[in-house]
Amino acid sequence: MPTATVNGVHLNYRIEGEGPPIVLMHGFSTGHYVWDATASRLAERFRVVRHDHRGHGDSSKPPGPYRIQDYVDDLVALLNYLGYERVDLVGHSMGGRTALLFALDHPHAHH
Question: Which H/E stretch holds residue 68?
């Protein structure tokens, strides 16, 4: 899987499908893989972007603690790295908090 270096960490990510971009964000103590079944279905209509948050999965695990704002900043940097200006967001648990804060901080970057 590809890796993007953003904010001093390496984020493991996966992109599949074609269409408007949708970002699936996992919860605490899991990784992008929790979305496997959902991603395969969504990839029929969307470009599905998944990543392992810092400290999770195969992404860098710098010393913590991590704040939700760290995950938001990483998401902003990853989307810039990938060249996406507007995305749809789906998050579970910690990923949901990340999506909510991202939407509040960047109201024009999501649908």
Answer: helix 68-82
Mean pLDDT of 84-106: 96
Angle (CA) 101-64-82 rounded to 5° is 50
Query: What is the mean predicted confidence (pLDDT) over 29-52?
Result: 97
Burial class (CB in 10 A: 0-12, 13-18, 19+), 31: middle
- Pair type for strands 9-16 and 88-91: unpaired
Whether 25 contacts 91, CB under 8 Å: yes
Question: Domain boundaries in the chain?
Answer: 3-105
Can you name the CATH fold of 3-105? Answer: Rossmann fold (3.40.50)
User: Are the C-beta atoms of 21 and 92 separated by less than 8 Å?
Assistant: no
Q: Which amino acid is at 77?
A: A
- Confidence at 110, pLDDT banded by 50, 70, 90: low
User: Could you give the 3-state DSSP secondary structure of residue 83?
Assistant: coil
Summarize pLDDT for 44-61 with one digit per residue, the tens: 999 999 999 999 999 999
